[in-house]
Design brief:
With about 120 residues, the protein is mostly helical. The protein has one domain. It is built from four helices and two strands. Strand 1 and strand 2 form a beta hairpin. Helix 2 runs antiparallel to helix 3. The protein is elongated.
């Protein structure tokens, strides 16, 4: 099975994920939303467990993106004491609504790797 949802444009940096080619990806452009990254992580984890030519790449993308999401959210929590609704796409700092424990609380699922 070929995975069409991943291409070389994705460098697994949380701050670049939203800039992906709109013909290939369905991500919100602009500020980083944790719920979108949660969905991407779920798909990458799934494909990283499937034998095939994309397994190794999906595994690397999954590990890198997961690490970046956790570093961003937890880093901002330690820095500010808040979970944020969104994170700046350039600096990774929390922006807009805070305190916000809506979909940003998905970080707990990301920590324990439970997506679906």
């Amino acid at each position: 099975m070929t995975v069409h949802c991943v291409n070389e444009k994705v460098h697994t940096l949380l701050h670049e994920l939203h800039e992906a080619d709109q013909r290939t990806y369905f991500f919100v452009s602009g500020p980083i939303w944790i719920n979108v990254n949660f969905l991407a992580l779920g798909a990458l984890q799934h494909y990283s467990l499937q034998p095939g030519p994309q397994q190794e790449r999906c595994t690397k993308l999954y590990r890198d993106l997961r690490a970046n999401v956790l570093r961003t959210v937890l880093g901002e929590y330690h820095r500010t004491g808040f979970l944020w609704e969104q994170y700046d796409d350039k600096e990774g700092v929390g922006i807009r609504g805070h305190p916000f424990s809506g979909w940003t609380a998905l970080v707990l699922n990301i920590m324990v790797e439970r997506y679906f």
